[in-house]
Amino acid sequence: MDIATILGVVSAFSLVLLSIMMGSGLGAFFNAPSLMIVVGGTLGATMINYPLGDVIGVIRVGMKVIFAKSSSVPELIASFVDFATRARREGILALESSISEVNDEFLRKGLQLTVDGLEPVAIEEILQTEIDYVEARHKLGADIFQTLGTFAPALGMIGTLIGLVQMLQSMDDPSSIGPSMAVALLTTFYGSMMANILFLPMAGKLRKRSQEEVMVKEVVLNGILSIAKGDNPRILEQKLHSFVPPNQRKSAFS
Amino acid sequence: MDIATILGVVSAFSLVLLSIMMGSGLGAFFNAPSLMIVVGGTLGATMINYPLGDVIGVIRVGMKVIFAKSSSVPELIASFVDFATRARREGILALESSISEVNDEFLRKGLQLTVDGLEPVAIEEILQTEIDYVEARHKLGADIFQTLGTFAPALGMIGTLIGLVQMLQSMDDPSSIGPSMAVALLTTFYGSMMANILFLPMAGKLRKRSQEEVMVKEVVLNGILSIAKGDNPRILEQKLHSFVPPNQRKSAFS
Amino acid sequence: MDIATILGVVSAFSLVLLSIMMGSGLGAFFNAPSLMIVVGGTLGATMINYPLGDVIGVIRVGMKVIFAKSSSVPELIASFVDFATRARREGILALESSISEVNDEFLRKGLQLTVDGLEPVAIEEILQTEIDYVEARHKLGADIFQTLGTFAPALGMIGTLIGLVQMLQSMDDPSSIGPSMAVALLTTFYGSMMANILFLPMAGKLRKRSQEEVMVKEVVLNGILSIAKGDNPRILEQKLHSFVPPNQRKSAFS
Amino acid sequence: MDIATILGVVSAFSLVLLSIMMGSGLGAFFNAPSLMIVVGGTLGATMINYPLGDVIGVIRVGMKVIFAKSSSVPELIASFVDFATRARREGILALESSISEVNDEFLRKGLQLTVDGLEPVAIEEILQTEIDYVEARHKLGADIFQTLGTFAPALGMIGTLIGLVQMLQSMDDPSSIGPSMAVALLTTFYGSMMANILFLPMAGKLRKRSQEEVMVKEVVLNGILSIAKGDNPRILEQKLHSFVPPNQRKSAFS
Amino acid sequence: MDIATILGVVSAFSLVLLSIMMGSGLGAFFNAPSLMIVVGGTLGATMINYPLGDVIGVIRVGMKVIFAKSSSVPELIASFVDFATRARREGILALESSISEVNDEFLRKGLQLTVDGLEPVAIEEILQTEIDYVEARHKLGADIFQTLGTFAPALGMIGTLIGLVQMLQSMDDPSSIGPSMAVALLTTFYGSMMANILFLPMAGKLRKRSQEEVMVKEVVLNGILSIAKGDNPRILEQKLHSFVPPNQRKSAFS
Lengths: 254, 254, 254, 254, 254
Description:
Oligomer: homopentamer
Structural class of chain A: mainly alpha
Distance between the termini of chain A: 34 Å
Order of helices and strands of chain A: HHHHHHHHH
Strand content of chain A: under 5%
Largest interface: A-B, 49 and 52 residues
Largest sheet of chain A: none
Number of helices of chain A: 9
Number of strands of chain A: 0
Radius of gyration of chain A: 26 Å
């Protein structure tokens, strides 16, 4: 559960609403046709930009990524030291029995390839391709949110232009100019809000999460290769410790 | 057939039209000289930017890419497992008879090079160059749409500047200021519309489609190399499965 | 001769002039001091940005690139198949007599190095460095136009700011406000025009032409290397065909 | 202690305050709801964009980086010449006694791996991974400040839009238009100030500091490898001198 | 001496001053507090962004780069052909006597390493690191000017916002609105001027000069390596000619 995302969305939106209410009622800031053009137009542009399946599928992926529990890298390193120790003492086939206990699919695949006796180069190729394409799929999710965050202000400006043209063409009643222009500005307001306190930071969070997940997979890849090459468990630990900041490095050997 | 593109264009444009009609007639938003300067100027700038043949040819390519049926990667992997199994059992020349049944030109070329007995390194060089230049040609299509989407708002702003200068120079009749300025803003409106709900998302879709097609070609390249190197079909399947998400991996061996 | 560039410049400018004349006379859009500050200031900023020799020399290069006839890659491939066939049949020295008939300097240098018996690795190093620096020199041309297209609107805005400050400081006569502001906007108009229907698309065309020329040189490099390595002419043709789209591939062997 | 950062913040802010006080009182520039929406909204958007722990932790890292004393590279090179000389004379194990005297953790780890007799390739792999991930952690700090600097003006504009809409909807009293609009502009002012004289230059400083620290680590990596390969101390000095400008190169051998 | 820079600065500034004087006196465009906030604020933000020593030191480096005489690459190639010929005829140690006559420090270092008999791979490593860090130091200079050019318009906008807020809060006297707004716009004018006809083109010139210097160093690196490998002087000349355009290639052998 990603508490920061929810906290951020709730606090940013309530602050905006609060600051609106300090100056006027909320009613002045709600306008159905304005909302329709910004929300609908942004979705339309995004649907031209991405295949339908991706737009739907990625929102699901996005949710999964946000709510996913991130793996503990120090624990992962500890398991690898364990695997390496057993592989050294009892031979690499001794790891076969552990594979079924492993939850993470990527780690399981890596161990299986090692036990199957593939060359380290071939293992690296397979796992690296998998990491690259996991990264590409995550990037797609972030890109779709980024696209939403790019089109929302653009559609907001289109809505404001429509409102301005309509206002300018019927300026008979001076007292209606102010309110008409206020309504015209609402679409820009909606577009800015959607982009800056929803879509763009969400795209950023997805990118961040993807980096973390890819880093965990890089640790797994390096651990697997180290075992496949028959590295000393101390060396394996040294290699994997390079991925984490010094204060998270707990050695199994001291 | 790419349903999302058509759905997106239709829905975005109808929403804009609908929201215009809720406030005024559509007539106020149609102005021939404004349309002329934005559409004509944008095409003119794009024709300076790209060779004439490319502009015409790429629109055709764009249509083909959008309406193209995307290949099924899982099916492709299944065929490769099949090819690899036969190559192992009956020798690589046994694949010769299958070549004529293959529809995809790239796959056919790869199989032919393999049957001809070229070194994997040479096969990789030839096919990778082909992938690079297919990518470059696709990129050109997306770039032209991106360029259209960059010049359209610029020409819109030029049109608005012309309208503003003309309005400011003859401000004798105050009642004409509003309508003159409304007309001046129309070019900015046209430019924004064309860029944001046509050209820019189309460029995005072309980029996305190109990525998909290149990914399919990467799968073919890796499959061909795996066969040329005489990989075990299980290993080949493992390698190719790395390109697809876990839920699309159906093994032929379990 | 690049017909699209000329067609684009002429059509874009005439459309702008036409649309101006539909609303007012052209006279209102001509203002010598405004033109002076935008054109002169843009050139000044570009001269700070680039050495004088480059600014002058590159415009010449730019013209040459635009008016240059692009090479026919399919014809080039046919010559290479020819070279390779003769080199195979009569030995690599048989190509010596052909060198003097070759017009293209890059191809001539490549053939000479091959006939001189240099190692393929050394040939690749020399020719690749040459391609890299041809690319760098072309890039400089495109960059200078891009820089002109960046400073022109900036200088336009500076001119408008000057006009606005002067107008705001002497607002005694309300009837002069409109025309003064119209004049102030002219520099922004000039800057936008110069950038969007001259400098920026010209920069794009130079980039495009450079890509084409570099691609031709890559074909030459690959053909030379293939001959130097003694490749079978069919293989050489396969390698070079990877650079062109399928519909331009005409084999000499079928 | 980084005197420039403090000097810059203090001088930039005092100049702004001074220039405000030359025209009016400071009071007109303080508005609690405006401050609330910009500061709170920016923090909210950043919290959506980054995990909570990172936002808190990175500010701490940022402070540490800014106040950290930068290492003296010439002194570091001198120590390496010393290490190399002793390793050559007394054997690599002679360095073991020096390890405990070394303060820098990265250098200590490198020396330990060398004394342990690892292959240079393995040492490089471990230390390079560590450098890459130190760089990634530093980059995260700079990215968070950059994100703050991107959202602050956006939230400023949202606040101004709210103020404008409220002002336009109640324009009964013309004398209140000016002050209302002044208040509406304050959020844009706050957003610009926070971004341009706090967040964005801080992000730049963090990037700069990170580059320096990574460069020091690159010197250490190259020194360690040079010792592990048994390079002549003069060669080692030549290699490490390449990292510093000529005027900072003091040879131990001349 | 770089005549274009001085010519550009002088001509751009005089054109702006001239066009101001054609419309009003220069006095209206001078305002001490406005100048103070833009110049001081920009320097402040840059001092937060970069260490104090770098800001001061780099301006000195910038001057040196701009006034530096660029090396003649064709002359450099001729010397290398000379070195290579002597090295071939009299052995590599014959170059020792020439080292003291060489002015360029980088070339001298390269020759010394060659005469010392280092492996080409080690020479390349040392010289390439030096090129990389020369490039990094040059880039820092360009980056600081780019940063100045980014913060100047931002501070200009902050100054204008301050002026607008103060004007809007005291609109009692309508006749003072124009002049107040004129003053408010001055900071934007200053920021635009400083950025577009000083800082940004200076940054561009520094980048250009750095490229040239790095290219000269790449020629030296390739020449040194060619001598160290014992290349035939004709081959060495061919290799180095790849760096210059065809019309600057004068062979010593024809």
